[in-house]
Amino acid sequence: MDSTSLEPSLYTVKAVFILDNDGNRLLSKYYDPELYPSMKEQKNFEKNVFNKTHKADNEIAFLEGMTIVYKSSIDLFFYVVGSAQENELMLMSVLNCLFDSLSQILRKNVERRCLLENMEGVFLVVDEIIDGGVILESDPQQVLQKINYRADDNPLSEQTVAQHITEKLALTSNVLQSAKEQIKWSILK
C-alpha cells in the first residue's frame, strides 16, 4: 500500500450530494477533481450509491473505495463521501451538521419541495460547512449564525446572500494579501 495514502489530510470530504427519492440529483459538490471528473461519472456514482443505500437502514456504506455516510428524510437522501481510510465519525458530524442546519432553514420541513424553494440557502450552508473538501464547521448553530439566519426572518434574504458573498471575498482577499507578504519576505531573505 502506498504510504502517502495514509498521510493525515485536511481534505476529508470528497463529495456531498442530495438526491430525491428517485435517485435524481438535487445538489452535488465534488471536492476531488480526480475522483469523478465528468458529470456522467458523477451521476453514475450517485446512482450506484442510491441503489445500494435507498432501502438500507444503515448509516454507513462502502462503495468503489469510498466511505459514504447517509441519512434520509421524507423524500430526500443526504450523502457525505470520504476516502476509504476516512474517519466515519468525522463524516457523520458533517452529515449531521448539514441535516440539522437545513432542518432549521426549512423550518423542520426537510422535503424536496422546500429544499428546491430554498436552494440558495442550501448552497450557503454547504459552503459554510465544507470548503474545497476541508471541514470548516460541524456545529449547526455556528453555521446558521454565519449565514445570518434567524427563524423569525424570511429565510436568507437577498441581502444575506450578498453579505455572505462579500465576507467570502474579503476572506479571500486577506488570504491573498497574506500569501503576497510571505512571498515577499521569503524573496527578501
Describe what you observe in this structure.
The structure is a single chain. This protein is an alpha+beta fold and 189 residues long. The chain has two domains: 7-150, Beta-Lactamase (2-Layer Sandwich); 157-189. The protein has six helices and seven strands, in the order E-E-H-E-E-E-H-H-H-E-E-H-H. The protein has helices at 39-53, 88-105, 112-117, 119-129, 140-146, 158-188, and strands spanning 13-20, 25-30, 60-63, 66-73, 76-83, 130-131, 134-135. Strand 3 (60-63) and strand 4 form a beta hairpin. The longest helix is centred in the last third of the chain and has 31 residues, at 158-188. The chain is globular and about 60 Å long. The termini are far apart. The model has no long low-confidence stretch (mean pLDDT 83). Residues 12-150 form the AP complex mu/sigma subunit domain. Oligomeric complex that consists of at least the alpha, beta, beta', gamma, delta, epsilon and zeta subunits. One of its GO terms (cellular component) is Golgi membrane. Keywords: Cytoplasm, Cytoplasmic vesicle, ER-Golgi transport, Golgi apparatus, Membrane, Protein transport, Transport.
Structure summary, number of beta strands: 7
Order of helices and strands: EEHEEEHHHEEHH
Mean pLDDT equals 83
Number of helices: 6
**CATH domain topology of the largest domain:** Beta-Lactamase
Which regions have little confidence, pLDDT < 50, spanning 5+ residues? none
Summing up helix and strand content along with how strands pair, one would put the structural category as alpha+beta
The total number of structural domains is 2
Please report which band the strand proportion falls in: under 5%, 5-15%, 15-25%, 25-35%, 35-45% or over 45%. Answer: 15-25%
Largest sheet, in brief, is: 5 strands, antiparallel
Rg, rounded, reads: 18 Å
Strand order of the largest sheet: 2-1-5-4-3
- Described by the principal axes of the CA atoms, the overall outline is globular
Overall helicity: 40-55%
